């Protein structure tokens, strides 16, 4: 079913809100006002908004340490999240969690983990509880591609399939594990074949089209719950904020540094928050679906609202 | 002629007590490898049956993930009990035991229950890969509530107090004692609400304290001293240490004689903090009996400690 223009506008506004919110966090980070290490997820906004959009009351979400977009999407506001980064009592977890373990149980974020692969089995247990309570809810565990290398990925997919548990294993694949690219650290993993070997449905999402993502995720959620089956989804993302170090004899064009954590020095807070004119940037992708002038006007509006929110 | 009742073994008593506890819980999820297949973990889970709204899962061989799975059930508000054949296997779940448990207890929104029940393999004949027998030391890594089952009373009390209750804990049994007759020390004269320790005998002559799974040695020494006309105080520590040592130190102040048993093979022993405090009390005698390791300690050799009770008795009388 085609997405209505009102729904499209709402989704686009959410993506822009998540982007500007992260840019504000980045500025606070640059100014050394944050007390904890934050892993920005600039470029991950489309999948975060899509996941939040398809979640229903009682669904559970278990993101990784790079959880900022998911927390922003589920909380619907920046202030309590920023306050948690300041470790203020007004933080979303009253300064108990900081960044990497930020939770929001009321909005479905029941667990987050900074340990690679750690959340996979926890999600299987949550899903079992949901199933045994007779509830028709999904459990979505979201991790990066580095986690696919952990044994718990295989173990938990196997357990979820063996026990018939509706767990959605969602891999945000940005091809980097800290500063090491996939090509530098391992042989390829064909998640499609891997899933097939366990008799688990696999879906690939790429291109940052949030409307397509939502349609696909709605279908996956329904399939997973109706059939009590796990699903593996691989989402291609680019974590924006990369940079190059000054030129050296070894790296004449400057060594490429992938953004992992900390502030993104080359990203600045702008009323128009697009970072890259490519499909790697969900804000750019929005311009393919909605007039850029409309998006720019909304960005200016949200910029003001967010500035007031954190003032 | 009436038949003489067969003595109940440690394993039979543990299994029987757990069978009742498992059968009484609403909505219990029992899981683990072979929990309802084959020997049922050598009889540990024999005859388990859950209520209609419970489930028993013969699980995959995925220890790390099974620990996380249990925590997930706890987050979801359920009751989980993971039975496992060997404490050593639980090392595979150390990330979950430390990191996941820390997140769960820090946020306090997980209202369910999770209990892990591993067998501490302390026969000694399994070889190099099965050499971990310091249960309390294991639990102290992440300050996990851990209880060692050593006798008739503590088996019943610890399971009744902790099994399937809200929160997380580990309860372990000793494989070495499986076929031994269960020791019935009777009701302790002193204990605490959680059963971290218990005092089973009181007397002015000697204070005997056992750690880990060495209660049978302490109990036997107590009986030997009584045969020799002495009245010892006997304590057992079921929990990771240090605990509040006050009741034990009071006894030591009175007797001025201390015997400690600790059968663990770790370098750092659970008894050390008590020993340090006790040795500042101007003792007339302290005897510290630990598992001495020969050059062959990684080989399949017995873990049973060879205790000369008569020699200890004489030394205490000297």
Overall geometric form of chain A: globular
SSE class of chain B = alpha/beta
The fraction of residues assigned to DSSP E strands of chain A is 5-15%
Strand content of chain B: 15-25%
Task: Based on Cα principal axes, name the global outline of chain B.
Answer: globular
Question: Please, what is the average pLDDT of chain A?
Answer: 96
- By oligomeric state, this entry counts as heterodimer
The biggest beta sheet of chain B reads: 6 strands, parallel
Q: Please identify the top-level CATH class of the largest domain in chain B.
A: Alpha Beta
CATH superfamily of chain A: Thiamin diphosphate (ThDP)-binding fold, Pyr/PP domains
Itemize the secondary structure elements and their pairings.
The complex is a heterodimer of chains A (311) and B (318).
Chain A: H1 5-30, H2 45-54, E1 60-62, H3 68-75, H4 79-85, H5 119-132, E2 139-144, H6 151-163, E3 167-173, E4 176-177, E5 180-181, H7 182-185, H8 191-197, E6 201-205, H9 210-227, E7 231-236, E8 243-244, E9 256-257, H10 282-286, H11 292-310
Parallel strand pairs in A: 1-2, 2-3, 3-7, 6-7
Antiparallel strand pairs in A: 4-5, 8-9
Helix pairs in contact in A: 1-2, 1-3, 1-11, 2-3, 2-9, 5-6
Chain B: H1 10-24, E1 28-32, E2 55-58, H2 63-75, E3 79-84, H3 94-107, E4 113-120, H4 135-140, E5 146-148, H5 152-162, E6 167-174, E7 190-191, E8 197-201, E9 207-211, H6 215-227, E10 233-237, H7 246-255, E11 257-262, H8 272-278, E12 285-290, H9 309-317
Parallel strand pairs in B: 1-2, 1-3, 3-4, 4-6, 5-6, 9-10, 9-11, 11-12
Antiparallel strand pairs in B: 7-8, 8-10
Structure description:
The complex is a heterodimer of chains A (311) and B (318). Chain A has 311 residues and is of the alpha/beta class. Chain A has one domain: Rossmann fold. Chain A has eleven helices and nine strands. In chain A, the strands form three sheets. A five-stranded parallel β-sheet of chain A has the order 1-2-3-7-6, sandwiched between helices. The longest helix of chain A is centred in the first third of the chain and has 26 residues. Chain B has 318 residues and is α/β, with parallel strands linked by helices. Chain B has two domains: 168 residues, Rossmann fold (3-Layer(aba) Sandwich), CATH 3.40.50.970; 128 residues, Rossmann fold, CATH 3.40.50.920. Chain B contains nine helices and twelve strands. In chain B, the strands form two sheets. In chain B, strands 2-1-3-4-6-5 form a six-stranded parallel β-sheet. In chain B, strands 7-8-10-9-11-12 form a six-stranded mixed β-sheet, sandwiched between helices. In chain B, helix 2 runs parallel beside helix 3. Classes of the chains: A alpha/beta (311), B alpha/beta (318). The interface between A and B is medium-sized, with 36 and 34 residues.
